[in-house]
Amino acid sequence: MSGDGQVGIVLVSHSREVAAAVAELARGLAGGGTTAPVAAAGGTPDGGLGTSSELITRAAESVDAGAGVAVLVDLGSAVLTVKSLLAEGDELPEGTRLVDAPFLEGAVAAVVTASAGGDLDAVTAAASEAYGYRKE
Amino acid sequence: MLDADFFRRWLSSCAVLVDREAEWLTELDSAIGDADHGSNLQRGFAAVTAVLEKESPNAPGAVLMLAGRQLISSVGGASGPLYGTLLRRTGKALGDVAEVTPAQLAEALRMGVAAVAQLGGAKAGDKTMLDALEPAVAALGDTTDSFAAARDAAEQGALATVPMQAHKGRASYLGERSIGHQDPGATSSALIVAALAEAVA
């Protein structure tokens, strides 16, 4: 990755409210104040449940500072839409990566790591490791 | 030979058939999915029709690439990226020639279907689109006469999903309760193959 900026984080959910709330939670748990850029891409443009490639593309562009963009997704069409946009080649900023991680826990780990200055590999690893966090 | 007009006819037939069967697709999807398959595809193929009227690509590959891209951006459900990938990969395989043979289309569609399988991670028998698409492309041969055989194979494939248990997508959460319902994705896939047969008629 090139550029001195922080890694950008995009949160894609079927629901506008879920994406926005998880973004807010991750920012808050990252210590508030200045965090790495986070953008929510939830639901369809009219506010319904679903996935919008337009909202995803716009969100990715808005957080791209040249250090790469980590995209976290909830399920189903969110996963497939991001995969197919990446397969297009030119739809998402260079250095955009789909991160295999649990949505909420991964988002928190990604935002904390990116805010601490971690590069795209570090952000991806931190988010994916969230799968290993057991609750009992 | 099949030119860009043939592919425009195919896609407009898709829009007509999806429109006509939208209620049924949504009904099937309300049994094992989230009850939006008909309306999602209606929106998607209406957008495809509109973009093809606005821009008129003059090569088969370009028509399919444009249509696929439009489906990815307008459907809003998993069927958007899946059908979008089917059309885009098929279009890419056809290249930028002005006309293609039925045999070339058959080969390109096989690549498109393989790309769908890869994207969704599904295989035959998982109660998905592939259960209609795979038999359809297997039935395609060197002539346009084989399009009718592909249509019949896709319809049989869709019907054969009834006793299957879903292993992919929202329906898989239902486990054994997904048995006894026809898969909406396989059903819409059969419509898309039927539209191919209509485009030569």
Structural category of chain B: mainly alpha
Strand content of chain A: 5-15%
Largest sheet of chain B: 2 strands, antiparallel
Beta percentage of chain B is under 5%
User: Low-confidence spans of chain B: pLDDT under 50, at least 5 residues?
Assistant: none
Number of helices of chain A: 5
As for the CATH topology of chain A, it is Rossmann fold
Q: What's the CATH H-level superfamily name of chain B?
A: DhaL domain
Radius of gyration of chain A over all CA atoms, rounded: 13 Å
Strand order of the largest sheet of chain A: 2-1-3-4
Tell me what the structure shows.
The complex is a heterodimer of chains A (136) and B (201). Chain A is α/β, with parallel strands linked by helices and 136 residues long. Chain A has a single domain (8-131), classed as 3-Layer(aba) Sandwich (Rossmann fold). Chain A is 44% helix and 14% strand. In chain A, strands 2-1-3-4 form a 4-stranded parallel sheet, with helices on both faces. In chain A, helix 1 (16-29) crosses helix 4 and helix 4 runs antiparallel to helix 5 (120-129). The radius of gyration of chain A is 13 Å and the shape is globular. By secondary structure, chain B is mostly helical. Chain B has one domain: Serine Threonine Protein Phosphatase 5, Tetratricopeptide repeat, CATH 1.25.40. Chain B is 69% helix and 2% strand. Chain B is built from 8 helices and 2 strands, in the order βααααβαααα. Chain B has helices at 4-32, 37-54, 60-74, 79-94, 102-120, 130-139, 146-159, 184-200, and strands at residues 2-3, 99-100. In chain B, strands 1-2 form a two-stranded antiparallel ribbon. Chain B is globular and about 50 Å long. The interface between A and B is medium-sized, with 17 and 20 residues. Chain B: InterPro entries: DhaK_L_YcgS (IPR012737), DhaL_dom (IPR004007), DhaL_dom_sf (IPR036117), Dihydroxyacetone_Kinase (IPR050861). Chain B: Residues 5-198 form the DhaL domain.
